[in-house]
Design brief:
single chain; alpha+beta; four-stranded antiparallel sheet; three-stranded antiparallel sheet; about 45% helix
Length: about 180
C-alpha cells in the first residue's frame, strides 16, 4: 500500500491527542447541557454565558494551536480548534454557572411579584407535552419561566418568585408561583 504524504497513517489507528480532544469535546458538551438546566433557574442575560463559552474556548484553542498544527496540519487544526472551543468553553461556562448556583452565596431570600409580558408553549415532543412558559422581567433582565404541563395563564396573571443571590451575584430562582 502506498503512503499518501508525510502525515499518512492507517484509518483505524487513533493518536493519543485525538482521544484527548475527542474526550474533552464530549465532556464539554455534556457539561454544557447541564449548564443549560442551571441557566433555566438563573437570572442572567443570555450573552454572559455565551461570551464566556466562545471567548474562553477560542483563547484555549489559540493556546493549543501550535500543538495541533504539529500533528494535524491546517485543515485538522481548524476542526480541532472548533472542537477545543466547544469543549473548553463548555467546561468554563459550566464552572461559572455552577459556581454561582451551588457555592454558598446569600442565604437571604427575596420575594418579588412580576407581571407576565408574554406566554407561549415550548415545542411538543413525541413523548411530552408542550410545556407552557411565561416571559417576565426580573431585575431589568428578561427571563423565560417554564411551567409544568397543564398550567393555564389568565389575562392578569402575575408570577411570584422566590429568589436568592448566588455566589457570583446573579439571582437563583428557588420557586415560582402564579398569582392573580
Amino acid at each position: 500500500m502506498r503512503k499518501k504524504g508525510k502525515y499518512y497513517r492507517q484509518q483505524d489507528e487513533e493518536q493519543p491527542h485525538e482521544t484527548l480532544l475527542n474526550t474533552m469535546f464530549i465532556i464539554g458538551m455534556l457539561l454544557l447541557i447541564w449548564e443549560m438546566s442551571i441557566f433555566d433557574i438563573t437570572v442572567i442575560d443570555w450573552y454572559v454565558p455565551t461570551l464566556i463559552w466562545f471567548v474562553s474556548g477560542a483563547f484555549g484553542a489559540l493556546l493549543c494551536a501550535k500543538y495541533l498544527l504539529r500533528f494535524t496540519g491546517w485543515s485538522g487544526a481548524l476542526i480541532y480548534g472548533i472542537a477545543n472551543t466547544a469543549g473548553l468553553g463548555g467546561y468554563l461556562v459550566f464552572l461559572f454557572m455552577a459556581a454561582n448556583c451551588y457555592l454558598p452565596g446569600s442565604n437571604e431570600e427575596t420575594v418579588i411579584e412580576t407581571k407576565i409580558l408574554k406566554t407561549g408553549t415550548l415545542a411538543k415532543g413525541s413523548t411530552s407535552c408542550g410545556s407552557p412558559y411565561a416571559e417576565v422581567m426580573i431585575d431589568h433582565t428578561p427571563k423565560r419561566l417554564i411551567f409544568s404541563c397543564g398550567t393555564a395563564f389568565s389575562a392578569n396573571t402575575k408570577v411570584q418568585l422566590y429568589l436568592r443571590k448566588g455566589a457570583l451575584g446573579y439571582y437563583i430562582i428557588l420557586d415560582q408561583t402564579l398569582v392573580e
